[in-house]
Known about the structure:
- The structure is a single chain.
- With 242 residues, this protein is mainly beta.
- The protein contains four helices and 17 strands.
- The strands form four sheets. Strands 1-9-8-3-4-5 form a six-stranded mixed beta sheet, with no helix packed on it. Strands 12, 13, 15, 16 and 17 form a five-stranded antiparallel beta sheet that branches.
- β4 and β5 form a beta hairpin.
- The chain is elongated.
Amino acid sequence: LSVTEGTELVYGLIGKEVQLDPKVTETINNITWKKENNGIAKWDSSSGLYYDDRCRTDQCNLNKSTGVLILKGLKREDKGRYFSEINSKGPAKEFELIVLEPVPKPRVARDCSWTQCILACVGEESNHTKYSWKENDITVKEGNILMVEKSGEQSKSYTCVFSNPKSEEHSDPVSVMDVSPGQSLNIFKKYSVLQYFLHDILDFKLIHRYHDMKVQDLLSVTEVCCLYLQSKCPSAEGHVCQ
């Protein structure tokens, strides 16, 4: 969006109202508000107040003392350039109005290893949206990606904030428990999955026994590894092969 020098950028939320304030310091005897080249509101001391075009049917409110124009019930087509002419002078102030939709609630995707998680926030993006992350209630990072080191601090939680200049939504919090192995997997703190599997890799009888099960006539290598690990650590069942 290109905004000329001296033009004030104003954001409004669809369905809500927005205020355009020319910040007048002199006494107003007459004022005209226009959108592009079309007059939408006018007042002077002799003929009174007149609304036209977008401002008909009680859709605007013009304050004759301050010159402030309020646009009600914003629609997408209300976006554009507005300016005021005060006391029969040229434009006193120009505004570029951008009408925004409220942002939807974002969701968090995660990709975790045994030592860390990469959290990715996903929202319906536009030119005016942005992401940030909170650890508990404190903002810790701007952007949609957060890397979290796994730790034993169970009180921590992470929330993505998705926002535009007029609205914001928070994701469901992701707790440390969500991204860390459960207590039943403490045995793996000393070994990686691969190390643990290789620790007794010569136990071919076990491997063959699981092959003989022939689940749907074929077990993949991954399934064999999972079954093997579960046999060595029964309490890990339901976690290892997820």
